[in-house]
Write a structure and sequence with these properties.
35% of the residues lie in helices and 15% in strands. The protein has 202 residues and is of the alpha+beta class. The chain has one domain: 3-Layer(aba) Sandwich (NADH Oxidase). Strands 1-2-4-3 form a four-stranded antiparallel sheet, with helices on both faces. It is globular. The structure holds flavin mononucleotide. Flavin mononucleotide (FMN) binds next to strand 3.
């Protein structure tokens, strides 16, 4: 199995270093108790005013009709590989606060935190998650009767990675591409925008 351990400049928790977004998924299903733990991890994310604005719509491959419906909410380029995953989910945000109804400016941020938790729980369990912005939110709204005050933002493919044997050359190549990141000095600033903070500068 291909391992793409992050080559970190500073030590991090194993679940973070091990996480990456595969294009090749094994057909093996994800056990319901593992799925419950992934969403439990999402549940305990921090959120503005503890609003918990995230919602997830989930479809398992065992239920072909439901799976096809969710798959149809992805853009074609994502459908091409995500259809192999045993579990698909839509990440939906409730864009207004439940109390008072005012817009929640950071709702999408908090869906991200919940999804990040879910990804790290998955990573610690040897599962993989590949997020997608390439979805058709209005199609999702129509198919799932998503109300006006909510919006489908992302999709997730969840499952076990598989190795490249027998896979399309293009997908195998994507999974072999090394993971790269900007150095800390390019995004941790101190005195002014663009000026690295002292603790990362040296
Ligand atoms: C919110 C979000 C949207 C993404 N959208 C897509 C997508 O539509 N299609 C895709 O192939 N990958 C998508 N990705 C995966 C990213 O390309 C990937 O996370 C990034 O290249 C870093 O690679 P890594 O996750 O393996 O470290 C998305 C990731 C995130 C977090």
């Amino acid at each position: 199995m291909h391992v793409k351990l992050a080559r970190t400049d500073h030590p991090v928790q194993e679940a973070i270093a091990q996480r990456w977004s595969p294009y090749l998924f094994d057909a093996a299903p994800v056990a319901p108790d593992a799925l419950r733990s992934l969403f439990e991890a999402a549940r305990w994310a921090a959120s503005s005013f503890n609003e918990q604005p995230w919602r997830f719509i989930v479809a398992l491959r065992e239920a072909p009709e439901a799976f096809e419906r969710l798959l149809s909410c992805l853009i074609e380029a994502n459908q091409a590989w995500a259809k192999a995953a045993p579990v698909l989910a839509l990440g939906v945000v409730k864009t207004t606060f439940t109390r008072g109804g005012k817009p929640n400016r950071v709702a999408a941020h908090d869906l991200g935190l919940a999804t990040g938790n879910l990804m790290l729980e998955a990573s610690a369990r040897g599962l993989s998650v590949h997020a997608m912005a390439g979805i058709e939110p209005e199609r999702a709204r129509a198919l799932y009767a998503i109300p006006e005050e909510a919006e489908a933002f992302t999709a997730l493919a969840i499952g076990y990675r598989r190795d490249a044997a027998g896979a399309s050359h293009e997908l195998a190549e994507r999974d072999r591409t090394p993971r790269t990141r900007k150095p800390l000095a390019e995004f941790v600033f101190g005195a002014a925008w663009g000026e690295p903070a002292a603790f990362v500068a040296g």
